[in-house]
Specification:
Blueprint: H1 7-34, E1 47-52, H2 63-77, E2 80-85, H3 92-101, E3 106-110, H4 114-123, E4 128-133, E5 146-150, H5 151-168
Parallel strand pairs: 1-2, 1-3, 3-4, 4-5
Helix pairs in contact: 2-5
């Protein structure tokens, strides 16, 4: 059977609890004040869209350096960028039409069949296209609203296209 706790023992327990509570409050306040408050990103009312092959923008694909350049330009200009991987050759046309409907300021295509992209450009003369051709591919004749570039020049041209949208907004 235990008897009453001496006053001296109660005082020690109370001080220990108070110290722990005070330490918890200090740690919580210090932790909250050091973290920046997230801010929503404010975008311009323009966007650039990338259509990739089914592999998307993973390292080693034609879309990866293009996407990196588009993201970098977006951070500098506040142009919204997005990408959409196609699911196969038969889906390229509907996906291009989807990007046209989204009113992308420029549609960049990586590894998409050139003839399909050129047909989409001809069918949508108000829409700008940047066609990234596979390595060793020939540069086809394009309508005025489309530009064809090699994979080696693709990242730089995609970044330029995003920056150009910002200057037009």
């Amino acid at each position: 059977m235990t008897g009453p706790v001496p006053v001296r023992g109660r005082w020690r327990r109370w001080r220990a609890c108070l110290a722990l509570a005070l330490l918890s409050v200090v740690m919580a306040v210090a932790g909250c004040s050091s973290a920046p408050v997230p801010q929503p990103r404010q975008y311009l009312n323009v966007s650039a869209c990338l259509l990739t092959d089914p592999d998307g923008v993973v390292a080693g694909t034609a879309g990866a350096p293009v996407w990196a350049a588009m993201e970098s330009a977006s951070l500098a200009t506040h142009v919204m960028v997005s990408y959409l991987p196609d699911t196969g050759p038969s889906d390229v046309t509907p996906m291009l039409n989807t990007l046209v409907e989204r009113k992308c300021g420029v549609i960049v295509t990586a590894e998409a069949p050139a003839d399909v992209v050129i047909a989409a450009a001809k069918a949508n003369p108000h829409q700008q296209f940047l066609l990234v051709l596979p390595a060793g591919g020939f540069l086809p004749r394009t309508p005025p609203n489309a530009v064809a570039v090699s994979t080696s020049a693709a990242a730089a041209r995609a970044g330029q296209a995003v920056r150009a949208l910002a200057s037009q907004a």
